[in-house]
Amino acid sequence: MSRSGLAAGRPRGRITRGTTNINRLRRVDRAMVSDRRIRQALAVAHPLAVDLGYGGRPDTAVEMATRLRSVVPNLDMVGLEIDPERIVPPRDGVRFALGGFELAGLHPHLVRAFNVLRQYDEDEVAAAWAQMQAALAPGGLIVEGTCDEIGRRCCWILLDTDGPLELTLSWSPAHTQHPSELAERLPKALIHHNIAGEAIHALLVAADRCWDRAASHETYGPRDRWRYAREMMVDSGIAVTIPRGRRVDNLLSVPWELVAPN
Description:
This protein is α/β, with parallel strands linked by helices. The protein has a single domain, classed as Rossmann fold, CATH 3.40.50. Helix content is 26%, strand content 19%. The chain is built from seven helices and eight strands. The chain is globular.
């Protein structure tokens, strides 16, 4: 065992750029807080969450803990980094330690791995997923995805121990002209499949089409316009998840089987 109390040993993975920004992952944090499946996964006696690959500064791990503790006050939070130079002392109730896809011997109920696999090859994704899945606590979940440098556009996949469950696209209503602009931020498992004949491409084309058809609702603002566009997608037979209540962010969530690569 290491002095941090976590399992010693070589972390699985490789050092990436580690770029980060304060509040960069606010959209995925907000979505996790309101996701009933994630709240259920954390509804245990000793809930543990891991922010894997928090980067050159620990800000996003601390922000994740703060937001999740608004609904799970007793949450234990650990930030893991594969670069020993990025490990910092505990702060704001968050521990930091050396670790990679093996999760440092921890068995968390929730793992967020953001902007990590984007720097890997697509054929490395399945193995990285499998390593994290193998370490999860029973009923645990993984949120794996990518966002732009300041967090205006985010895409992620929700996984459990059996595999991917759902894809979500989340964006700032004021800074995106069409849903398809999120294509460059798709998770590594999908980003190279945004071509004609692939399901993710068809989804983005449909989202753009419905967005354009909803132009008459622009006077009510881009959030209301997207709400109508999303309802059009449902009416056309696309299995889009309609979130409860009004949201700060525009969201598009669909079952994984709707976008899985051919």
